[in-house]
Amino acid sequence: MTVYDELVARGLIAQVTDEEEIKELVNNGKAVFYIGFDPTADSLHVGHFMALCLMKRLQMAGNKPIALIGGGTAMIGDPSGRTDMRQMMTKETINHNVECFKKQMSRFIDFSDGKAMLVNNADWLLDLNYVELLREVGPCFSVNNMLRAECYKQRMEKGLSFLEFNYMIMQSYDFYELYQKYGCNMQFGGNDQWSNMLGGTELIRRKLGPDADAYAMTITLLLNSEGKKMGKTEKGALWLDSKKTSPYEFYQYWRNIEDSSVENVLKMLTFLPIDKINELTSLKDEHINEAKKIAAYEITKLIHGEDEAKKAEEASNALFNGTGSLENMPTVKIESTNISILEAIITTGIAPSKGQARTLVNQGGISLNDNKITDVNYCLSDNDFKDGYAILKKGKKVFYKLVI
């Protein structure tokens, strides 16, 4: 199976500009490709991880990845997939986030010996002269075509700012710059980036001539059964930073995915062979849980390392199967056993406010040491900490160990 055929088999490819040319480049290790990451937070999340997996697969086949961190484009804000304008960030915040991204990316991509590059588009975008830019690239963009782009259409009803309208031009300019400076011949990105990516290929051809070969390919977005992006939790995004999403929480997310999502998750986010994945996803009913366990372990191992994956697996087994160790489950320290159930819920982060905590109790969603709590005025006591800890549980899947 060729590299490109494997990408197809894993369901990773959504759209391509020139399939035969892209096949030739990718299969023969001749692709110099880039994927952009705008530093809108101080950690990468699972959506970024999918892109990093693709970069790693292609690098293993001899292709050269360029990880572009959008220190410049983050000053504008990508309107793709948004119903409202992104909050503008300061330069200091952006620079801090850039440094966080760099550290995390180096764990997945091999940047040694020229095998990959890490660049920041702030290095060229922030020094551009506005009038000169308009004269250089302005004639290459049709406003009519831009307004037909999906990333803009969905914003037209609520209002699209001129600031955001420039984002496509900035992203296109990135490809143009990388093509000239580093011989970058291909851009990959999420399926919601298609219009921006086409803008880049068109800009290159119009500025450098019809023989300037530049290609684009979008990656299929990982969606749940409701058509929403996977990787969202009650606390927000599923982060790669263990301080923002613990390895246990990360493991449990994948352990509890829908049955219908198991195949796509294994194909897109693990490096297990296709034959092995087909074998796992042929399981039915309760046996599909084995495939979920493997998916959770493999993905957690890639992000947090084998030791943390084993600890998360043990904690999960202890809670759900009565085997393994509780030592590694999420633990929250409290100052006294004399704490109300509502305070305990808020302290663990199960709910952000007393109002929501009260609702959870009233709806029967909270248990303490496997005993359902129905009284919102319940206070914990020494009796709840028989072994030095108490297990606070929301529903069937969210657990916290309370210790003094």
List the helices and strands and how they pair.
Elements: H1 3-9, E1 13-16, H2 19-27, E2 32-37, H3 46-60, E3 64-69, H4 91-105, E4 117-120, H5 122-125, H6 130-137, H7 143-148, H8 150-153, H9 162-165, H10 167-182, E5 186-190, H11 194-208, E6 215-219, E7 232-233, E8 236-237, H12 247-255, H13 262-269, H14 274-281, H15 288-304, H16 306-320, E9 331-333, H17 341-348, H18 354-362, E10 366-368, E11 371-372, E12 389-394, E13 398-403
Parallel strand pairs: 2-3, 2-5, 3-4, 5-6, 9-13
Antiparallel strand pairs: 1-6, 7-8, 10-11, 10-12, 12-13
Could you explain the architecture of this structure?
With 404 residues, this protein is of the alpha/beta class. The protein is 44% helix and 13% strand. It has 18 helices and 13 strands. It has a 6-stranded mixed sheet with strand order 1-6-5-2-3-4, sandwiched between helices. A 5-stranded mixed sheet has the order 9-13-12-10-11, with helices on one face. Helix 3 links the parallel strand 2 and strand 3. Helix 12 packs across helix 16 and helix 17 crosses helix 18. The longest helix is centred in the last third of the chain and has 17 residues.
